[in-house]
Amino acid sequence: MNLAVEYNCGGIDWEELACVIEAAGLAPHPPETFRKAFENSFAVVFLRDGQRLIGCARALSDAVVQSALYDVALLPEYQGRGLGRTLLEEMLRQLPDGNTILYASPGKEPFYERFGFGRLKTGMGKFSDPERVRQRGMLE
Ligand SMILES: CC(C)(COP(=O)(O)OP(=O)(O)OC[C@H]1O[C@@H](n2cnc3c(N)ncnc32)[C@H](O)[C@@H]1OP(=O)(O)O)[C@@H](O)C(=O)NCCC(=O)NCCS
Questions:
Q1: What is the tens place of the pLDDT at every residue in 114-134?
Q2: Distance CA 132, CA 137 (A)
Q3: Three-state DSSP state, 41
Q4: H helices then E strands: how many in the chain?
Q5: Rounded distance between C-alpha atoms, residue 97 and residue 134, angstroms
Q6: 33: which of 29, 109, 114, 119 fits an S-S bond (Cβ 3.0–4.6 Å)?
Q7: 55 CA: nearest ligand 1 atom
Q8: Tens of pLDDT, residues 54-106
Q9: Ligand 1 atom closest to 69 (CA)
Q10: Are residues 67 and 42 in contact, defined by beta-carbon separation less than 8 angstroms?
Q11: pTM over 0.85
Q12: CB of 116 shorter than 6 A to ligand 1
């Protein structure tokens, strides 16, 4: 593997990124929606194997105290090889020393616990498609 890490959106093929996110099982959107979402984010990380995009993550942040992670995804064939750790460490390094939240996919909570995340007791979310979120087991 020829791993490369990128921290800006300059070289991203948004169709390829949409495929990575869909293959990882996260919420799909049109490539143009992902382009806007990533370009409007506070911090982004992309992983490549050679030229191939294999992973991504993005964060919103006020740059002082509060941040939120989204679209943490690796192609399935690259999962379980330590690259999720690289992705998350490279993302957290760019965020302020404050509070960081995320919605964990069911079963992924132990992955985040390794990086100091805890399970929220009073987390609330308002979703554009609550039924989808409910079906994924993330909403009561
Ligand atoms: C979440 C994701 C990025 C993690 O990447 P990964 O490559 O599988 O994780 P790594 O191999 O780097 O694992 C890092 C550590 O977390 C642990 N870990 C990873 N997934 C785990 C899980 N589901 N349960 C328990 N531990 C887990 C690993 O054992 C490893 O532990 P170690 O450092 O002590 O050896 C990846 O699985 C993925 O893209 N999943 C599909 C999309 C998704 O669910 N994203 C999260 C949305 S919230």
A1: 999 999 999 999 999 999 999
A2: 9
A3: coil
A4: 5, 5
A5: 32
A6: 29
A7: 39
A8: 999 999 999 999 999 999 999 999 999 999 999 999 999 999 999 999 999 99
A9: 48
A10: yes
A11: yes
A12: no
Alpha carbon nearest to ligand 1 atom 43, residue: 73
DSSP 3-state of 59 = strand
Backbone dihedral region for residue 85 (phi beyond 0: left; psi -120 to 50: alpha; all else: beta): alpha
DSSP state of 49: E
Structure tokens at 139: 């909403």
What the chain holds in terms of domains, given with CATH numbers, is 3-135 (3.40.630.30)
- List the alpha helices (DSSP H) in the chain: 14-23, 31-39, 83-92, 109-113, 130-135
Cα 126-124-58 angle, rounded to 5 deg: 75
Ligand 1 pocket, residue 106 CB under 6 Å? no
The amino acid at residue 58 is R
Q: Which two tokens stand for residue 107?
A: 């079963």
d(CA 119, CA 5): 29
